[in-house]
Every structure is written in C-alpha cells, then in structure tokens.
Amino acid sequence: MTVDRSRLPIPGEDRPFHFPRIVRRSLANGLELRAVRHRSVPVVSMVLLVPGGSSVDPDAAHGLVSMTAGLLDEGSRGQSALEIAERVARIGGDLDVEVGMDAVAIGLTTLDRFFESGLELVHEIVTAPNLANDDFNRIRNLRLERLAQMKDHAAAIAERAFARVLYGSHPYGHLSLGSEPALTAMTVDTVRAMHAALFTPAGATLVIVGDRSENQLLDRASAMFDPWRAAASTMTIDRAAGLTPPPATPLAALAVIHRPGAAQSELRIGHVCAARSTPDYSRLLVLNAILGGEFVSRLNLNLRESKGYTYGVRTGFNLRRGIGPFVMQTSVGTDVTGPAIHEALAEIHAIAADRLATGDEVGQAFASLSKGYPRGFETAGQVARSVAQLALHNLPDTYFEEFVPRLAQVTADDVSAAARQYLASAKMTTVIVGDLDKIHGSLAGLGLGPHHVMAAETQ
Amino acid sequence: MQISYTKRTLSNGLDVIVHEDHQLPMVAVNVWYHVGSKNERPGRTGFAHLFEHLMFEGSANHDHGYFPPLQRAGGLLNGSTNVDRTNYWEVVPTGALDLALWMESDRMGYLLPALTDQKFNNQRDVVLNERRQNYENRPYGLAGVAMSAAMYPPDHPYHWPTIGSAEDIRAARLDEVREFFQTYYHAGNASLSLAGDIETAQAFELAERYFGGLPAGPAVDRVRVDARLKESATLVLDDRVELPRLYISWHSPAMFAEGDAELDIVADVIAHGKTSRLYKSLVYERRIATDISAYQLSREMGGMFQVACTASAGIALPELNSAILGAIVELANGGLTSAEIERGVAQTEAQFIYRLQTIGGKGDQLNAYNTFAGNPGFFDADRQRYFDVTSRGAAAAVSRWLINAPSVSLSVVPKGRRDLALPGAAEVQVS
C-alpha cells in the first residue's frame, strides 16, 4: 500500500486513559497519607511534602529552610552522613530534597523489594536528623561557595535579580539558597529550631506510589509514621507568609546587571501575576501555550524561528500558593538585545490588545495540552509528584480526571480576557544580564525609561 | 527484567524494532541515524548537529515546521546529536502514530527539496546562539572543547565538539550540507524503534508502508581512527569563574570493550556520592574541594576517562591533583573493596530498571543497543558486564588505562590567577 503524501494523516481517536486512583488515610498525628497503585516496573516512589518552603525563611536568615532541609540527609539517629549515603546507595535509591518557595519535598525512588528500607530511611532523616555543628559548617561552606559560583552564571544572576526586582522584601523575593551574609550569620541552633518548627506531621502529606495494593502501601506507611510527633521549638514560623500581597510596582522597569564581555544577554521579562488558586487557571494554561509555553508559540516562532535572535524562548505563569510571577526567559545575541526586547514586549502586548488569540490557536493549544496529558503519569515518580501538588494546592482527588474537561471549556474570548487581566504591559519589568557597554545604545529606544544598574549579588 | 522486542530489517536496510507496552495510550517513535560529529571533516564541523535543527524545518511533502502538527496531536518531540549518532523521536498518542511515521519517513526520504537558503541561514543563527548560550557564556563551558582538542590530534574525528566551531558554522555552505545529508541520512544507515501501545504485526505493517519505499542510500564507511596520546600535557585556560577546577583525562576503552564496565564502576567508586573515595576525602573530610565528578565516556572509536574537581576557595589545584592521582594509584594496587562492589551492583541494577520506566527510554535503549552492539536484546548482556566486575579486573583496567598511560590535565582558573594552576601549564585558546 502506497502512502498518500499529498496531505498529513489525520490523527484517530484517543484511547481511554485511567488517571491514578488516590486512596487516602489520615493519621492521628495529623499526617495525611495518599497511595496510588502503579503497575509498571518494580519501583516504588514516595514524596513527603511539608508546606512552607523558602517563603518561611526569617527576614534575617534567608536560606534557613533550605539549609535545614539540606542537612536532613547529612546524618541521622547518630549515624554519619556517610552511613546514610551508604544506606541509600545499597538500595539503589534516588533521594532528592527539593526546596521550593511554598514547600519542601523529600522524594525517594527505590526498587520495590527495598520499599520498607526506603520508608524507614525517609522517616529517619526527617524525624531524627543529627543536625550536628560540624556537618552544619561543612554544608554552609559548600553553599557559600555555590553562591560565589553563581556570580558567574548569567541565568542564575538573572533569576535572583528578577525575584528581587519584582518582590523586594516579600517572602518570594529571595532564592531558597539565601545570601552570603545570612548564611554567614546563621548558627546550627537556628537550624535546629527551624527543623522542629517546620517538620511536623500536621499539615504534611506523604504520597506513596508502587505496584502493591493501596492498603498495603498505606499500612506500611502508617506503621512507620504513626509515632511521629512534633517537637517543641523556640521558633514560630508562618507557613502562610507567601500569601502576603507582593509590591504593587517593581523596583525598576528596566534593570541591568553589567557583565563585561558577556557572549550573550540573558533576559527575564514579567511581573507579579496570580496565585495557583485563581479560577482562571485553565485559561492561563491556554494563554501561555499560545504566547510562549511551547515550541510553536508566538514568541518562539518570532524570536527563534523567524529572527534567529535566540536558541529558544519560554514563558510561564509560575503560580504559587501566594501570588506568583508571569515570566518570559531567554538568552539572546548581544548585538540584538534591544530588538529582541522590543519584539518580546510587542508580542506580550499584542495578545492582550490588537492580535488576540484566535480560535485556531486555542484549538491547537487545547489539543497539545490535553492529548499529551497522560504522558505525565508514566512513572511512579511522576505520579507521586503530581499527587503531592494536589495536596500542596488543596485540589480534589478528582482533579486529574477533570483537567481536560475544564480545559475544553476555554474559548478564544476567555483567553483574551485572561490576557487583558493577567498581562499588564505597564507593570512589566525587564531584567538584562549582559555587557552594558555594548547594549547601552539600544536600550534608550525601547521607551522603558532609564535603566537601573544592579549588582550581581542582590541580597 | 528484559525488554521484549521483535526486530526485522526492511529490504532497504532499515532496522525496525518493536516493543509492546500498553500501560499508556501512547507510542514512542525513535529513529537513530548512525552519524555524528565524528563523520565530519576538519574545517567543516557542526554539520550533524546543524541537521538536527534543519530536520524540524520541513520536508518536500510537508514544507512547514515539524512541531505544529505533532504538538497539536499531543506529541512530545525532539532530537539530539553526539559524536557517534543522532536521534529523532516523538512520543505520540496511539491515534497519531500514522502522523508521526508519515513525518519521520518524509524527512528521511524527502528533506532536501525543502531545504532553502532562508531556513539554512535562520537555523545557523539559532545554532550560533545555542553555542554562545551553552558554551561561551557558561562558566567552565569551554573546558570540554579544550579537552577534546588536546586529547585528539586535529584530524581525529573526536578532536572537535559536536556543536562545531563557530567559524565553521558561519562558513558552512548549503551544497556541502546537502551532500552530508545524502551521505548519511537514509534507511540503510538508520534504525527505527516503535515502543508502546501498538500490536507488533501492525507496527511492522506501518513501518513497511511508510519507510519500505524509501531508497537504501549509499553504503556508509564506518569511521575507525585509533588515537593515542604521545605524551602527557598540562594546560591552563582562563575563564570567568570564581573557583578553579582541574580536569584530568585519559584515553580509555571503547563502548562495550574490555575494561569499559570496570572503568564505569571505578568512576562511581572514585566520585559518585558521598561514600565515594574522593568525595569522602576531598569534600567531606579535608574540605579542600567543593565538588568532584568522574566518568567513563564510552564511545564507538574509543573512550575517555575523566575526573573533574573544583577547588574550595583558597586551594590551589596541585593539591587536588596529587590527591586524585593518589586515589588512582591506590585502586591500581588494591582494587575495590567488597562493599564497593556490592554497592556498584545494587546501583547498576537500579539504574537499569529505572531506564525501563518510560516507553521513550525503552525505545531509545533498543536503538542504542541495535546501533552500537548490533543487537537490540543486548540489555542482559550489558548488565551482566557490570555484575561481572571484580576487584582484580578493576585494578587491571586502572593500571592499564590510567597508570601506564599519558593524560591531559587542564586547569581552569579565574582570570589573572595562573598561580592556582598546575605548574608549567601551557595556555590554551578556545573560542
């Protein structure tokens, strides 16, 4: 049979996909358990989600939550960091401690036959870390050196400056790693106090995904975590600190971090935008896909495929428990920095003004977001992280099933309304990390007013 | 554990490998072309990677971008290039399998009629941006380029980086690029795997329908060039970095050759995780380094074993150098401990199983084994190589490849801080 090459084949119907069924259990100590049976390779993944990430760092101790979380696997119950590492290695474990702005997530993936050992390990490092002074000093020094190295990394400098310009002293205004003065002033006592205050069973959620019955997964987890009790702490933390409204206006509309001789200009453009709880979440997903969320988005087709200014450009609505930012990120040739910013701002403006999203674009975005959706549930680790996100944002267990039907309701008018409401050209900040001497001339023509020169390390 | 599969070769030489897994209503389509930057010539570098870009820009019967129809169908797609091979893949909902095969076969058979100056010039700019972003504007980003250049003579195919030299990319001409495509991108030099929600019989039928009529293409001569370092070299590169870093590289066994698995385990024992010998001694105990890594880079024509170590503030690289060389001598003399072997086996087993978690991972693995071992079912044999590693075997591999062999040391130091480099280092220029 020959192939008809006069036109592309039209995709057939989607086959049905069953989203993970979540089984819940609550422990007396307040810990919430979630289990999902996942039939694939003999692997178990677990995520312990503790709400309150870097946004609960005390004002004078930026980096404390991350430092505390980072010390969890540096020794526990009297065993050294090396002994803990050896135990992880012997079960072929992949242990990962992630500190976000809203939560700390401790993840472990291991082979099914090591499930019980893995569970014990996670329990132990969270509830009984040594938090020894010597380990604290060692990890602090490594982090100070990492902060020093970030000064050479254009993307890291841009991230840090962008957060600072948008959020100022708001809890979302600093990176989880913290700052040099804060780390230097920190003591192991504050780490211990933070550990006792932050790592409590009440409010936390443990998600377990593997090829065993949900009840068996839950029984093992209950037995292990049931005795966990919150410790007394000298520190009071506010897990809702991120919910404070961010500043209405950014520190600057155009900020430059001068990097003499830089091979490219690293760019961030955006503004504070919305919380994850916004009822317009589905609309924002579609808007983002059209504007800059995918390879075929307007921004990428313009800046990369048409102009050749960049290797790639992306946008995202980084929605959090509190108000998160809209951000566009890219790295462009030094000589085209001005034109690239001009084009980017024009595209962002146009989708809310004179080139509104078309029905075809919305159809394309919907198809790509919905038809590819099951791909996010392929591995036990992906399922565990997705279920943990539901817990963080207080979303129902039926969320995955409802995702596509909700998305299907979004119309072109909805997307335009969302663009007008959530993309504000007047509030837009542009951060550039690049060679100011070379790009200086092209900035004036942008109409963004005078540029504000920042240092690479903003506190 | 094993990846079950069926393999057939079409009359035009295209290998087709099918693996069924109905967990997800999706299929991973994966095409490997047995061409990489090692098939390029000095002065004409970066072509294989440039094609990885041009292959998404349209073909004769679909002269538009490749992303819109596939993304619209819910597909995820990309490609990658290294010294030895290039792959193109998409994971699509089962209903879009015909679409994916139509498109993959169209660019295999009919790319050149759609390749215009305009597309070529645009993607050349994109690649130059990629090079600046990922190499030139990144701390230590040019170290790998400098190391390959020092390890291999200028006419050796591993001398230049896969991204190519900026000068060559600028000078590339469309007719040369066309000729490169005609030489390497055809059914006889490719391997197609279909993994996921598909019946085996139907998969072969579809493969035959879309690819069966494409020409085999000219036979491809495999590149085989031996490389040996005549003597050790000590080099220094100034970079925009805060902390100096030392790289030490040796020539090592080719992929799947004797000693390859041993050196892979040795790399883990030296530098993977806190319990590794050098992390423990340099980062954990003595605190003179902030990080350490080591790997055995297995490649078709020959491998490269490399250790990289970043100094803590105030530490000069000679101190790290003697510690690293000392650990290597210890391994040559004493081999591995039983705890190290046990750990190596546990981690190997886990890593092999983790690779089977996705249909995309399995499809790519089947093509890798088919292309490099001539057998998609090499999974068990590959894993067995690691289980068979002994203390004595590891010691022998270290002696042969790392002790009694020349090496290249590269100090990357902050501008103006040559005093931190190894003594007598010669300056290298990279761009």
Summarize this entry quickly.
Chain A has 459 residues and is α+β, with helices and mostly antiparallel strands. Chain A contains 16 helices and 14 strands. Chain A has helices at residues 64-70, 81-90, 115-127, 133-150, 154-167, 180-185, 188-198, 214-225, 281-293, 298-306, 337-350, 359-371, 380-392, 399-408, 412-422, 436-443, and strands spanning 23-26, 32-37, 43-51, 75-76, 79-80, 94-99, 103-111, 205-210, 254-258, 264-274, 310-317, 324-333, 429-434, 452-454.
Description of the molecule:
- The complex is a heterodimer of chains A (459) and B (431).
- Chain A has 459 residues and is an alpha+beta fold.
- Chain A is built from 16 helices and 14 strands.
- Chain A has helices spanning 64-70, 81-90, 115-127, 133-150, 154-167, 180-185, 188-198, 214-225, 281-293, 298-306, 337-350, 359-371, 380-392, 399-408, 412-422, 436-443; strands at residues 23-26, 32-37, 43-51, 75-76, 79-80, 94-99, 103-111, 205-210, 254-258, 264-274, 310-317, 324-333, 429-434, 452-454.
- Chain A has a six-stranded mixed β-sheet, sandwiched between helices.
- In chain A, β1 and β2 (32-37) form a beta hairpin.
- The longest helix of chain A has 18 residues, at 133-150.
- Chain B is globular.
- Helices cover 41% and strands 19% of the residues of chain B.
- Chains A and B meet through α2, β7, α4, α10 and β12 of A and α2, α3, α4, α10 and α12 of B.
Give the topology:
The complex is a heterodimer of chains A (459) and B (431).
Chain A: E1 23-26, E2 32-37, E3 43-51, H1 64-70, E4 75-76, E5 79-80, H2 81-90, E6 94-99, E7 103-111, H3 115-127, H4 133-150, H5 154-167, H6 180-185, H7 188-198, E8 205-210, H8 214-225, E9 254-258, E10 264-274, H9 281-293, H10 298-306, E11 310-317, E12 324-333, H11 337-350, H12 359-371, H13 380-392, H14 399-408, H15 412-422, E13 429-434, H16 436-443, E14 452-454
Parallel strand pairs in A: 2-8, 9-13, 9-14
Antiparallel strand pairs in A: 1-2, 3-7, 3-8, 4-5, 6-7, 10-12, 10-13, 11-12
Helix pairs in contact in A: 1-7, 3-8, 9-12, 9-15, 10-11
Chain B: E1 6-9, E2 15-20, E3 26-33, H1 47-54, H2 67-72, E4 76-81, E5 86-93, H3 97-109, H4 117-136, H5 143-151, H6 166-171, H7 174-184, E6 190-196, H8 200-211, E7 233-239, E8 245-252, H9 260-271, H10 277-285, E9 289-297, E10 303-311, H11 317-334, H12 338-354, H13 359-373, H14 379-387, H15 391-403, E11 408-414, E12 426-427
Parallel strand pairs in B: 2-6, 7-11, 7-12
Antiparallel strand pairs in B: 1-2, 3-5, 3-6, 4-5, 8-10, 8-11, 9-10
Helix pairs in contact in B: 3-8, 9-15, 11-15
